[in-house]
Write a structure and sequence with these properties.
The structure is a homohexamer.
Chain A (H helix, E strand, L loop, with lengths): L3 H7 L4 E6 L4 H10 L3 E5 L7 H11 L5 E5 L5 H9 L4 E4 L5 H11 L12 H5 L6 H7 L1 E6 L2 H5 L1 H6 L5 E4 L1 H7 L11 H17 L2 E5 L5 H6 L4 E6 H19 L3
Parallel strand pairs in A: 1-2, 1-8, 2-3, 3-4, 4-5, 5-6, 6-7, 7-8
Helix pairs in contact in A: 2-3, 4-5
């Protein structure tokens, strides 16, 4: 199967993604059809459970999109299940130490790199399993960097082999820097933290990714991010509802 | 419970609604929170089945929104089930004759008006059942007018007592006038049909409603519609995804 | 999207199909991957409801298979919903008269052929809607011929324009000929009925289809059937379980 | 499989049943374990859809209880699906005429009695299918008598062969006699209607059944009913919650 | 939103709760309508998974009830997900040590108190998110004290800041004291353990809570408990079924 | 309830099992009806979540089959939930050390053996709970031995009291021996590992189990395995589809 995220990276471009919180596989399918490079089904703060995620990944298999899953926590059971369902990679929350990074890498890879258990059930149904060596090479293990602690240890964390990209969670990162949760901040220290992560990524040959929004895409691209989530399903639906209601109220004198 | 749709009508205003196709009750809840007067869960062309609809109606009960359901067909089983689940009314597709209108009215009302069977299970759980007379008075029985045949018979259809509003389906109406399905048409005959329905509604004291979009709200309001669906969940999410991806591709040089 | 069933027919070949009763979309996806020309999700005697069917159709969209749905009854609501979910056609039980055939055709087609309501939601999400004319041309309206009554009226039924194929249900057909339900019968009258339907199909330019099994594929192909269901999920799983248990009991001395 | 309802009838006793509205198969399983003769999953006013019903019927198969399903309407598609899922019979709402009774009987029986389509999928999985003759003999076709119209025609309705029992819906019956919906009424005309139905059942050799409550069991038994629903899941849970809260508030000085 | 549990505590009263094991959101909605101060959806021994819990919490949002969730284990992933779904607090099983109490507190609070990740998706949809400071102040972190080990360490456990209440699990507590699982015990040591926990709670300004039943409400209230679960859905339904069947069998001579 | 697995063992026989990956409880029910001694619902690489597993276990309760669940990981929350749902035992992946074996045993047993929390909800609904002592005696705690590390420590692992059987995962075991994942291997070291585990089991009075296939049943039985999984649902369906399609293509000249 094609893998639009890696193709974008291979071409030196910036991969753009959509974020899925809603419990309907047609939403992920719509995102994939629209043309994002990756679509990530969020099992942490989103509303899906394993079943909705598996159906969403199946519904996207028709397109070239790279399916990702954010797991609820750095726990090998759900990491394995997400990959077995056909996710090309997992985004793993709250990786704050070398030990946690090693556990993330271990859960994503088969021996000898890690301890993933074998049983790629959905890839089997799709005729797409290419062997454990290929799986170990291709799996996208993407820890989230979203605390002050993680930023301070970023170089050590990125020394752990097997990390494909890191994914900054700006809201959580804001909180541990004493700021209100937000996609962006004016705060110097916070921005220095962002820059430090990007620089460490560059030094380690690891892609820098970030949870973001369309309005920030240019800025994040200039900062060196090559994996930027620019849209979310629930955000889009809430914004669309709000805009449609406001303009129609005005239009109908309400 | 409050009933924002009727309040809007009582105040002489225009009720604005959102349309729900997605299988996640939080979408309907979001629409209700945003402030639409009514939110309609579509069981005909939408993706929900009974269960998703019942959960969506439950999730909206917190707000003052008027929950509606479009049933898949003019069939008493599902009409009763939608009302039992707590819908304040039903939108009924393809009512093209006096006989079909009578069947729609019959399915929505208890004796002596109709043949609805008693068992308002969700209203019971909500402590909101006010008796069969109140139910017969308050239920919104809303046939769809969406064929040439129905337009031609509109006066006879509206003579049937028990119809609260009619709801024009512009896409299907377009088809039976030989046009491509669309929300609006430049075609004179089609526009005359629209005007005829609105006029007949006015003459019969029945609200004119229409499936529409925010960009058409002003026009439909001026035409006399007092129930206008101006937003849809899947439309909003697809539009939001598309806009975010386009602007972000430009912004990131993709 | 490709449409393997029509391609097979266009090439003068015999289309082979799998039958889906189980409530897991990966089963349909497996059938599609294995290479059947069509896969039919059975909403009549199978265990799926709308939701499972819609997810199965989505999971098959990756492949070239032609997705079909057998609806529970000749009822326009569920016929429309199956097509909206992305089915390329519907198999409609117990079509025993010209009137019932006309109602089946009507439910499958938009005006001016029929009365189907517009709202192809899943095709929209897939970017695959090609217009109502194309939809009317391509939809596979497949009535089941499964009673003595239907066999006797087969020529009149096939005179109804808009039928793509007929699908013989051998078990129900057996019953109305006074036989035990079965895939095949030694009974002359029953075999004459089969032959009569195939002959009438040939005369009317309509494909003859039949619910069958792999062991009967050669026979049915020789009889002139060009649409033969040769495998079923629950049948395969029950047969596999049985064979594995028997041989293993023997092997382990049990 | 055992069939506690028929055994009770065969022994000249009164069969007692529980009513299932909740979407959790363990509730039906609990009712079956407690020892009711029949448990009826309500698809009309209850909250289950096909899937929940099928799982409930499967969960009860361990016990000797007779599983029944009330279908949403007198429609052959869902009647067949309920029986295919393993229901021993169906309760069919709003059978008000000879024609409607004939349609109910037809949907419940295979040829030559009716037009049921063959495909008893769950019985197959349970190894319990005993042939179409046995199925035709054993199926419980139970029309509801719940309008004034039906009462007036009761003798004609019961002349239709193939009816095992009738089931009075006292709430709907109350409505068509101009009374508030209730399980029992002081009204003479209403009580005469009840008596008339019981008498007609006795004359026709058909069991009289009634939707009721434990407090009315003695009265209904004396009136000649041999199938009495005396408990409901949502009723029990609401009553239990209410009683526990009231006594505990008092006990804790709240 | 109102928060009946805290209001009850603020008024010096005893909060009474209902326990939800069943997979149908209308059960929790019924409990909330009946008037309990809190309703707890049990993800440990109950039958719900994340999805059922999220729908139950949404269905209760209409009322002033305080929604709680018992998580399956002291694990940050599911604790965060329960709070994101709109639970006002979590009951956390088997907290037997200071370290486990600290982990429970950490999972319930954002920085600087804990390590909860930001993403309150359902509160967002409800327009009810009041900021991370408010969330940290209001979240109800309720460890279960249900082993001898925990009782012995109760003072140290309650020294951990951030605990709102403790919740005694009498069945598990019985087991570690060598008794059969039960809601109450005659055993002196067991009752001394209960008293010790209540006394330690009083000394630490922490509410004492207990899993119980209506028959024990007075006793538990006198012992100083201010959070008493007095009813459960499956218990109520089983008790109601049993009582209805017994009295009806007698009444009908069965 | 009967317990076919233990009966087979008690009789000195070899227990044969089926493996369930599909999300439809009728598949497990079919396996139980066919006559396997145990049926295991796989929550690790299979597609079910808690809900599907609980429904599958309920559907099998009618038969004498021993229901097992493979949990996704060695985590007490899901182990307890599987047993509460009615599983007679759990298969626990990747038990590679004495500490991990002790944690597995602890999660499966109530005090004083372990730390399982009390709440056997489904057994309660089935009237089948026989007390905590019986539960502790009967629960099947079955760690998986599937790494080189585990094989090397097998004697120490089996010294841990409370293990009923071990279950070899040949695919994962292959990987840690540097081989491609497979059900069997020609490799001497790998076969020596298998033999070592069986020998250690014999020495410790623990049953040796293995994930396998019908074609290997004789061999595994001769090696001393007394618990052999010989069939899988998705395997059977994929094999059946493939065989039916191939033979039918040939038969129809395709």
């Amino acid at each position: 199967m094609t893998d639009q995220l890696r193709e974008r990276w291979a071409a030196g471009g910036t991969a753009l993604g959509a974020w899925i919180s809603l419990r309907d596989p047609i939403v992920a399918e719509t995102a994939a059809t629209v043309g994002f490079d990756y679509v990530c089904v969020d099992l942490q703060h989103g509303l899906n459970d394993y079943d909705g995620m598996a159906n969403a990944v199946a519904a996207m298999a028709r397109t070239g999109v790279t399916p990702l899953v954010r797991v609820p926590w750095n726990e090998p059971g759900i990491i394995g299940r997400a990959l077995d369902a056909g996710a090309a990679g997992v985004i793993i929350p709250m990786v704050n130490s070398v030990d946690e990074a090693q556990r993330a890498v271990s859960a994503c890879h088969y021996w000898p790199i890690g301890t993933r258990s074998f049983g790629p059930i959905a890839l089997g149904a799709r005729g797409g399993f290419a062997g454990i060596e290929a799986a170990n090479e291709q799996v996208l293990c993407i820890p989230m960097i979203e605390t002050r602690e993680a930023v301070e240890r970023i170089d050590d964390i990125l020394d752990v082999p097997g990390i494909s990209a890191v994914y900054i969670g700006p809201a959580d990162l804001s909180i541990t820097y004493g700021l209100r949760p937000g996609m962006d901040q004016a705060d110097d220290e916070w921005n220095a933290a962002i820059a430090k992560v990007v620089a460490s990524c560059a030094a380690h040959g690891v892609t820098a990714g970030v949870h973001s929004a369309a309005a920030l895409a240019a800025k994040r691209g200039e900062q060196g991010f090559r994996m930027i989530t620019v849209s979310s399903d629930l955000g889009a639906v809430a914004a669309g509802f709000g805009a449609d209601l406001r303009s129609s109220r005005e239009a109908t004198g309400g």
